[in-house]
Design goal:
Elements: E1 10-19, E2 24-25, E3 28-29, E4 34-41, E5 43-55, E6 61-67, E7 71-74, E8 78-81, E9 86-92, E10 99-108, H1 120-124, E11 126-127, H2 134-138
Antiparallel strand pairs: 1-10, 2-9, 3-11, 4-8, 4-10, 5-6, 5-7, 5-9
Amino acid sequence: MEQPSNIPGKTYVATLVTVPPNAATPPHIHNGAAVYAQVIKGRVLSQMIHQHTVTNLDGTIEQQEHDSGVGIYESGEMWYEAPGCRHVRAENASDTEEASFYANFVIDTEKLEGVDKKDLASVLTILDKDPRSPHYYAAESV
């Protein structure tokens, strides 16, 4: 964990994630963090739902949802998760090979105050209460 001087109030956290064959995480969010992930081994299937506020030409404001669609990322490829988006699918895309990727978080420093390193994962990744979102079932199988 580092607190870069050029982004006051933010902390940078780098993690290595290893995913066994056929394994997946339940849908989750990253506690307001921006996340850049880069695959270093294997293939990772990823799908995110972004929600954002839009001001229409007539001045009305509405919430819109954008589905990133299913993507499969291979060694050397990256994806970005905007603050507040839901990661509805995160899976190893192989039945036989392990996958690994770096997940790099930029998060508000105050969210990490008093957090023991052993509890860091539960602060950075908050699992949905319902382990399967409707988007999970609606997503195309790859």
